[in-house]
């Protein structure tokens, strides 16, 4: 024992295992300290003296046994302890954050999920591969879906709980202007992410073309993380400002005024890799969160960012026909559409980020 730590030399490793005494006491998993039924701790931070030291400890076989000053006995599985290091945890988070970036050209040859509705409903491996595609590429498709709202809802609820907003749980839209949103028109929609005026923007969005009798209405997807990778490589100062400059977004209609302020880019607090893009030029509020002395730099940065998003090499255009649902990661993939004529009705729904990550984690696709 050295200072406030216990050092264990494993025979299978040249590097010793070092564990803080307070951490060890906090991570005792006996029935007095941990509820295995609810998977919750039973002791508080205040129950553990900050200068606590074992009165005795011993390695017996594959277990570390500790006696504490109050005679409490703790037993730890060394195999599990050996994985409980900051370095290994950080590596696992890095692995979970790893994504395959794509351009309009490269996505054509990537094995993203495109599955049939019957297989998706009945085959667990197909469902898992579908979620894996959402994690890795940010996009996945279901085909041969009867074009109605019931089957659209069934497709989402096969894997996820639906995230309800003021648009409803499931929603359908056309050009009837039911909400103060450009999606409810026939106009061109530039690439954007949804819900920027919410503090909990949807993690996944599903879109299903239910009917279209006219022309146009092609769907646009852009891999925002690929755009950021390009900007970080060629304009690192711009990238850093996108991660720090606060932008306010808002949604206003009768009886509602939603606002939220955050940087365009959110980084993972541990890996410092992009975790979320919040970009919707339509929903930007008056630019009051930036000093006037910094405004020229801000608009210059936004023009560089927008130009990369709108570059043809990053824009994946395709026609979404009735019977095909596209799911995409709303924290990564920007979406839009071309203008259209005729009668076009879309259906869909949102999935919260925490729900998406929970499903991926229970499938052991992320840690």
Describe the structure.
By secondary structure, the chain is an alpha+beta fold. It folds into 2 domains: 5-84, NE0471 N-terminal domain-like, CATH 3.30.2020; 100-362, Clavaminate synthase-like (Double-stranded beta-helix, 4-Layer Sandwich). It contains 10 helices and 21 strands. The chain has helices at residues 21-26, 78-81, 86-97, 117-122, 124-136, 149-157, 224-234, 236-242, 295-309, 353-362, and strands spanning 5-8, 17-20, 34-35, 40-41, 56-60, 63-67, 73-77, 113-116, 139-143, 170-173, 189-192, 204-212, 219-223, 246-253, 256-263, 265-267, 274-277, 316-318, 325-329, 333-337, 344-351. The strands form 7 sheets. A 6-stranded mixed β-sheet has the order 8-9-19-12-21-10. Helix 7 crosses helix 9 (295-309) and helix 8 (236-242) packs across helix 9 (295-309). The radius of gyration is 25 Å and the shape is globular.
């Amino acid at each position: 024992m050295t200072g406030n730590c216990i050092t264990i030399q494993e025979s299978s490793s040249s590097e010793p295992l070092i564990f803080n005494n307070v951490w060890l006491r906090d991570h005792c998993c006996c029935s007095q300290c941990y509820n295995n039924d609810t998977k919750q701790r039973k002791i508080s931070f205040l129950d553990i003296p900050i200068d606590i030291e074992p009165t005795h400890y011993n390695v017996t076989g594959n277990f570390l046994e500790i006696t504490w000053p109050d005679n409490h006995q703790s037993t730890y599985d060394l195999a599990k302890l050996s994985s409980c290091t900051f370095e290994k945890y950080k590596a696992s988070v890095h692995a979970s954050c790893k994504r395959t970036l794509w351009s309009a050209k490269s996505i054509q040859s990537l094995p993203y999920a495109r599955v049939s509705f019957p297989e998706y409903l009945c085959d667990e491996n197909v469902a898992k591969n579908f979620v894996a595609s959402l994690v890795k590429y940010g996009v996945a498709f279901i085909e041969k879906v009867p074009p109605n709202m019931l089957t659209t809802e069934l497709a989402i609820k096969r894997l996820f709980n639906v995230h309800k907003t003021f648009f409803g749980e499931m929603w359908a839209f056309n050009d009837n202007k039911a909400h103060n949103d450009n999606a409810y028109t026939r106009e061109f929609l530039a690439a954007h992410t949804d819900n920027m005026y919410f503090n909990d923007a949807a993690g996944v969005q599903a879109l299903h073309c239910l009917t279209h009798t006219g022309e146009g209405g092609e769907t646009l997807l852009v891999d925002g993380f690929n755009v950021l990778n390009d900007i970080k490589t060629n304009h690192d100062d711009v990238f850093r400002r996108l991660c720090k400059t606060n932008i306010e977004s808002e949604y206003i209609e009768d009886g509602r005024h939603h606002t939220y302020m955050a940087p365009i880019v959110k980084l993972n607090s541990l890996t410092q890799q992009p975790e979320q893009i919040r970009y919707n030029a339509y929903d930007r509020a008056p630019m009051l969160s930036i000093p006037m002395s910094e405004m020229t730099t801000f608009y210059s940065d936004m023009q560089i960012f927008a130009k990369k998003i709108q570059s043809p090499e990053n824009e994946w255009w395709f026609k979404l026909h009735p019977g095909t649902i596209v799911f995409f990661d709303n924290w990564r993939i920007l979406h839009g559409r071309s203008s259209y004529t005729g009668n076009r009705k879309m259906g869909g729904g949102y999935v919260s980020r925490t729900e998406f990550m929970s499903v991926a984690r229970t499938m052991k696709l992320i840690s």
